[in-house]
Amino acid sequence: MKFITYFLCFLLTMQPLTVFANQSTSLKKGQKAPFDGTLLDVEAIARILADKTISKLKCELTLLTELAKLKAKSTLNLNSCKISLNSTKSKLRDLLIIKDNEIKRLAKLAYKPKRDLTALWFSIGVVVGVGTTIGIAYVIKEATK
């Protein structure tokens, strides 16, 4: 798009002008021209020069407009990227907080001190074993009588 704009402006400013010939002279009415060429009156020359100036101004305005458009578009893209970056950072920060809280909660569950009931179970085992042994001994003593 930019290339086409520049190319068209170049073509408009470099249009072939018959005013800028290798030779020029001023003639009065009825006077014979000293060389072959195209004769233009003052109004035609003024129109050609004005057209060239207008074309140059149009080209400059087109370039300024395109430049302003590109600058606005790049500013919009930059601001959009900044907003997206800030949004992503915020989202990741919140996600890390949630993960840290979950890790702490699971750590409390995993490292919760358990009551050591080994001594209780050992004592119950000894009492049951001794009770069973005494019971069996009593049954044998009574059976042998």
Largest sheet: none
Please report which band the strand proportion falls in: under 5%, 5-15%, 15-25%, 25-35%, 35-45% or over 45%.
under 5%
Element string (H = helix, E = strand)? HHH
Number of E strands: 0
Overall residue-averaged pLDDT value: 84
Shape: rod-shaped
Estimated helix fraction:
over 70%
Which structural class fits the helix and strand makeup?
A: mainly alpha
The separation of the N and C termini measures 120 Å
Radius of gyration: 52 Å
Poorly predicted parts: 17-22
Number of helices: 3
General description of the model:
There is one protein chain. The protein has helices at residues 2-13, 42-110, 118-144. With 145 residues, the protein is mainly alpha-helical. The chain has three helices and no strands. Residues 17-22 have low confidence and may be disordered. Helices cover 74% and strands 0% of the residues.
Topology of this structure?
Blueprint: H1 2-13, H2 42-110, H3 118-144
In short:
This protein has 145 residues and is mainly α. It is 74% helix and 0% strand. It has a domain at 1-18 and 38-110.
Keywords:
145 residues, mainly alpha, 3 helices
